Amino acid sequence: MKKEYLKIDKVVGPLIQISDVDDVFYGEVVDIVEISTGKVKKGKVIKIEEKNVIIQVFQNTAGLAAGNSIIKFTGESFNLPMSLDLQGRIFNGIGEPIDNGSDIFSLVEANINGRPINPMSREYPRNFIQTGISSIDTLATLIRGQKLPIFSGNGLPHNELAAQIVKQARLGDNVHEDFAVVFAAIGVKHDDEKFFRKSFDDANVMDRVVMFVNYADDPIAERITTPRCALTAAEYLAFEKHMHILVVMTDITSYCEALREISSAREEVPSRKGYPGYMYSDLASLYERAGMLKDQAGSITFLPILTMPNDDITHPIPDLTGYITEGQIVLGRDLFQRSIYPPVAILPSLSRLMKDGIGDGFTREDHAEVANQLFASYSKVQEVRDLSQIIGEEDLSPTDKKYMAFGRAFEAKFLNQGFDESRNIIQSLDLGWRLLALLPLTELDRLSPENITKYFPKES
Fold first, then answer.
1. Is domain 4-73 given the CATH code 3.30.470.20 in the classification?
2. Would you say 357 and 179 are in contact if contact means Cβ atoms under 8 Å apart?
3. Residue 369 CA neighbour count, 13 Å, CB half
């Protein structure tokens, strides 16, 4: 029989401390009942030192004090009911419905901390997920089972990009396997949540979306559970129902800030910029839940979005994320200031798994060559622009002037894309060929003669 306790030794932020506690375990769910109102708050055990226990409370700790609350240890882990009925629903950061719909009733429950995947049972990611955005699909292709973060900055349109990806993402035009999106918003403003919900409703994709929302004014402890609830839903749909799941999560920076605040409340020794020393392993416990399993249908593809403080890519959050994930998509402030949307800076962007999920049988046989040539040509554009700043554009060579024209057209027609404009991979590749036709054939040294004969625009 589990004991109930009437005493609270200390309340620090989202944490409460109790002494002389027996028979509890790490991660155990706790019910905190306010005696005067009968209101129940949820928490979990996050630290045990002999008979002293620290509990992380998911709701506000205001009003909790010794003598006015009952602490009940439930003897259970934090589990969520799992069902296909999750699709089309909206939940808060601890998995409770907030869309005025009914609770999820199911005999199947899953621990939000996930289940460890044997590395030997992982399948190497192949096949691409089409986002409908040319710069991503062509130059930083998202592969099924990949974890590919988006590095943004304050004020950049990462929310719009996230919504557009959720609206447009698909396995491909000729693929007919089950596909769904799990979307998690961490520490977002109410206006942003309304924007996401309206975008999904207007695009008629809400029925394939599972949405978890943690508002900026919600308790910070809930930000720790939000991504875990989302990934638990993704694991169930992918590995139990054999669906292909894209997890879009914004903003990982809010999650890490909550991690730092809770670490400070626990009086732990801080590491870089005050973040806890275990932030790398904590982020890895999220990112590594993506992937595919051998001899089993279903996959989890992870697209976390984070805002880099002061646009600093060496900040601990993007720095540690880069060690764990398989590339990055970087949003550029200079492109945004020139009204280019989405402002994907392709030169620092990279998809490390792209080479194994494109080409004949996946996208089109010329994909790799077109991507390499666009990278090389746009890189040359940057060099020519630097030169023009010194000698002026009028004194550039004829070839360099063509590179300047290519750069302007590439940014205006290829990188720039409407919020409601979706391009499939064939349209994006064909557009790439039309833009490369602005350059002399002698400059297109990354393209094979066979592909030039087959795909080079005839009018050029």
1. no
2. no
3. 19
Single-letter amino acid code for the residue at 110: A
Q: What is the pLDDT of residue 460?
A: 56
Select, from the ranges 262-271, 288-297, 419-428, the one with the highest average predicted confidence (pLDDT): 419-428
Report if pTM > 0.85: yes
Q: How far apart are CA 413 and CA 408, in angstroms?
A: 8
Does residue 33 register a pLDDT over 90?
no
Give the closest residue to 171 by CA, choosing from 230, 246, 85, 231: 246
Task: Please give the helix or strand (H or E) that residue 455 lies within, else none.
Answer: helix 449-455
Check whether 188 has a pLDDT greater than 70. yes
Strand 29-34 vs strand 40-49: parallel, antiparallel, or unpaired?
antiparallel
Q: What residues does each domain of the chain span? A: 4-73, 79-356, 368-455
The class (CATH top level) of 79-356 is: alpha beta
Spell out the residues 6+ positions from residue 383 whose beta carbon is closer than 8 angstroms to its own. none
Give every CB contact of residue 194 below 8 A, 6+ residues apart in sequence. Answer: none
The CA–CA distances, whole Å, from 259 to 169, 183, 252, 275, 297 equal 30, 20, 10, 7, 34
The yes-or-no verdict on residue 1 having pLDDT over 70 is no
**Closest by CA position to 233, among listed 222, 221, 246:** 246
Instruction: Quote the CA–CA distance of 124 and 144 in Å, as a whole number.
Output: 9
